[in-house]
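ok so i was messing around last nite and threw this chain in just to see what happens. nothing serious, just curious
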Amino acid sequence: MSEKRPPRLSAWRFVVTFGTVSLLADFVYEGARSVTGPVLALLGATGLVVGIVTGVGEAASLLLRLVSGPLADRTQRFWAWTIAGYAITVISVPLLGYASILWVACGLVILERVGKAIRGPSKDALLSYATAATGRGRGFAVHEAIDQFGAVIGPLVVAAVLAVTNTDYGPALAVLALPGVLALGLVVWLRARVPHPIDYEVDPKPHVSLTLPTERVRLPRAFWLYAAFTATTVLGFATFGIISFHIVEAGLLEPVWVPVLYAGVMVVDALAALATGWAYDRYGARVLFALPVVAASVPLFAFGSTAAAVIVGSLLWGMALGIQESTLRATVADLIPTRRRSTAYGVFAAVVGATTAGGGALAGALYDVSVPLLVAITIGVQAVAVVLLLVVTRSLRRPAEEPAHEQ
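result:
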């Protein structure tokens, strides 16, 4: 076995640089997501269609990780999967603005999410190695906060181009190709500097796991309980595509202001990620009780009849998203050993993705039928999520489970 060499970048520099890659990528796909609802509405979509497409897109970004996660573990080519996923996003987003047929636009929305599915488990695994040295919650929170700068800048750039071009989505999305190319270049450079981020792990034993184990390790019971809680709370969480569709269809804001609002949502996302990430390192999984409470509040405002109400609801949506995208992932890293972590992220995302598709379709269908019913069902689902989280936190107080081995 070759002697283990220290990485050429410190763990924090790796996290910050990877955060910059994500910043540029978020510039691209969050810029597009800020106008997904209006783009589909312009092509004749209904609330149900927007709900299904955005829900299926989010599900694709999660369910397909059930394949990409284990494949990444088996091949150990985490960087290759990460780069390929970013490339798909960079290609699909600029094309969306020039789609003139509804089903083509729907396909591109989903394709962009497929790119995230391909890179997601590998990217999370690479990042989890470095956060072993920085602190799980802190590392994931800082990464999330950095990439949210891109999530703020992207929608603002889209809004500026829309204002100049009289709401022409083609040029507004085409300009996003530049930060996409920069993201690809930076991730390739980072791979050259740190080809084996697993060396950041404090425990030297994971380094040996680069040789694939001959026996499979079952994911622990606490992991499955945690996945059930997350899936439930996501089921009662509408996509921003439906919220933005409501804003435009109800005439509450001009289309050019929708991406500006989304930029504000991303600021709240970043702040929530930082706050809950730091709190997670201090207080543990109890911090996650905030998620179903905030998610239950979203539809009370987001589907209101005034601009002020939908702005408040959108910001609450961003708060819930910040918790989902940082602290939820950090908890998975603490539940699973390194040699099965990419697989665990894939399985976790797949479980959540199955309910995301249903949740998007459910919210879209209920929106077309009755907003009060949508609010009531969302609150009920989040109440169930609170109960599941109580079970999870009690399970985590017990002595840590040793993963069982399959014979």
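not much to say yet. The longest helix spans residues 102-134.
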